[in-house]
Amino acid sequence: MAEVGPINNAASYSPFVKSSHPLLDVADLSKAFGGLVVINRLSFSLEEGETLGIIGPNGSGKTTLFNLMTGFLKADHGKISFSGNEITNKRPSHICQLGITRTFQLPRPFPQLTVLENVTAGRAYGKESSSDIKQARREAMEILDFTGLGNKQAVISKNLNLLGRKRLEIARALATRPKLLLLDEVFAGLNPKETEEALELISLIKNRGITLTIVEHVIKVILGVSSRVVVINFGEKIFEGLPTEAINDQRVIEAYLGEDFHA
Question: How many CB atoms are closer than 10 A to CB 125?
């Protein structure tokens, strides 16, 4: 996939000036379902321009964390701040308008709409939304070109293959003009060639200056794109640091990687 020209109004995709506070700050966050504690007193922060990997076993609370950060679930305890403003338990639409957007493990396009219509909807209702539908369509088309879907604009989204649906999920998220993009297992189910193509797209997104947080089981991805990782197990943070340190940490090996793991 070749580098493409700048997305319209590309200033919002340029590297951000460092501020005096983290872009995202999660403090003492907890969530339980009945008697089952899924997130337990979890704290971490994220600086602008970073790529943070979040890893852990199935059921460790990674997707629940994303749901809390984007308002799809209400926290029982703790605080989430974004750009210095508390967003704990705010509506998903409000959080999106502030600049946090996520993808889902299972892509959730509007199945009966075309690829272009899906992305246009994101452009029309996201951060700095466009009330001019023609302008929204032009910007959506530029995003499709950027994500490698320019030749699929007229395809009904339900007819895309898995890689196409994952690209569309990312394109819809980018259409909202996020400062922080949360990627939830976008590499799951992809073959090695598709994984390489998806990694190239993630690299292009990083080059736009967008801050990323990635939940992923493909360790190659975490090692390749993350500047720092947080490892959680049973909803608790058991490690935070460099990816190369994580894969050699005994707690991480015992809880997640296994003794036979080789990077």
Answer: 15
Q: State the amino acid at position 17 in one-letter form.
A: V
More confident residue, 125 or 37: 37
For the chain, give every domain's residue range.
Answer: 20-99+178-263, 107-172
3-state secondary structure of 28: strand
Over its C-alpha atoms, the chain yields an Rg (Å, rounded) of 18
C-beta pairs of 29-38 under 8 Å, 24+ apart in sequence: 29/65, 29/68, 29/75, 29/77, 29/78, 29/79, 29/80, 30/75, 30/76, 30/77, 30/78, 30/235, 31/61, 31/64, 31/68, 31/73, 31/75, 31/76, 31/235, 32/76, 37/234, 37/235, 38/64, 38/235
What is the tens place of the pLDDT at every residue in 110-165? 999 999 999 998 887 766 666 678 888 999 999 999 999 999 999 999 999 988 99
Q: Cα dihedral angle (145, 148, 150, 156), rounded to 10 degrees?
A: -140
Distance (Å, rounded) from C-alpha 183 to C-alpha 51? 11
Where does the pLDDT of residue 14 fall: very low under 50, low under 70, confident under 90, or very high at 90 and above?
Answer: very low
pTM over 0.85, yes/no: yes
Q: Which CATH architecture has domain 20-99+178-263?
A: 3-Layer(aba) Sandwich (3.40)
Minimal CA–CA distance to 226: which of 213, 209, 245? Answer: 213
| Tens-digit pLDDT profile for residues 173-190 | 999 999 999 999 988 888
